[in-house]
Model the fold of this input.
Amino acid sequence: MSQIYDRVALIGLGLIASSMFWAIKRAGLAGEVTGFARSEATRDTARRIGLCDRVCDTLQDTVDGADLVVLCVPVGAMGAVAQEIAPVLKPGATVSDVGSVKRHVIEAVSPHIPEGVHFIPAHPLAGTEHSGPESGFAELFDNRWSLLVPVEGSDPDAIARLRALWEGMGSNVDEMDADHHDLVLAVTSHAPHLIAYTMVGVADDLRRVTDTEVIKYSAAGFRDFTRIAASDPTMWRDVFLTNKDATLEILGRFTEELFALQRAIRTGDGEQLFDYFTRTRAIRRGIIDAGQDTDAPDFGRGKTSI
Ligand code: NAP
Done:
């Protein structure tokens, strides 16, 4: 793979940025990668583990001269970061992001993008429940989807270049409209996370009653919930605050279905339960056939699971 950008700046050095760095290096996609995190502790860790060619102490130094700037901070922090870097953005540069919600990021970041700078939002559909500069790995995006969400009038060449970067990092790439993205992600990621958080909370309340049994005999289903519910609290707070409408819409539908199943259990309607579970089992088969998960026992546990 050949070099796509001379200089890439990664803002925020957590799971996604660190995985991007290792994936960029693996394929030689950039001449130099600079990085910035707001805390000195994270910057020190990054320097210690060789994360980024150059870790800078200010946002301005990080972005200065960059051809591509990727905002890898929680969704709620994107607007403030964009405002701060705006004066130093190089004409012709591209600003992108990796936020889990797109409409909010577009509204928060677009007003700060200067004339002559391209803004192309993006979202890699890959992650783990781990966070921070030491959690990243080069293979995170391999064979996973990354969505580009170009805003109106985006430059086709700038889009093609960003697409090439994500493909070079191992991703399959698609383009999607922001509102559609937010609805799809509410179904596939945001609502499931809230359900996992809730289930673990319920079990925790119960644990106080049953002592340690919930943990001791924790079955696979519950363990999956605890893994998802261990995800970063800041990131997920921001996701729900900024993808409010779509998440509430999906949770409304979820609650209706839950009540229907609850009623089937109460009335002993085995046929309804069986038919429902048969339908959902087929969906699992479809996900495996599409290469988005593995049929291995325990889901081939490990790297890319959210
Ligand atoms: P992370 O591991 O928690 O790292 C977040 C980074 O952002 C840290 O370097 C942190 O700096 C910095 N940061 C936090 N708040 C900030 C603020 N107010 N101003 C400036 N910098 C700030 O996060 P991540 O999992 O990589 O997620 C980053 C973005 O990717 C989020 O927008 C998230 O929605 C999106 N995303 C996440 C996943 C996932 O599974 N984790 C998947 C796809 C997309 P310090 O370390 O100095 O605090």
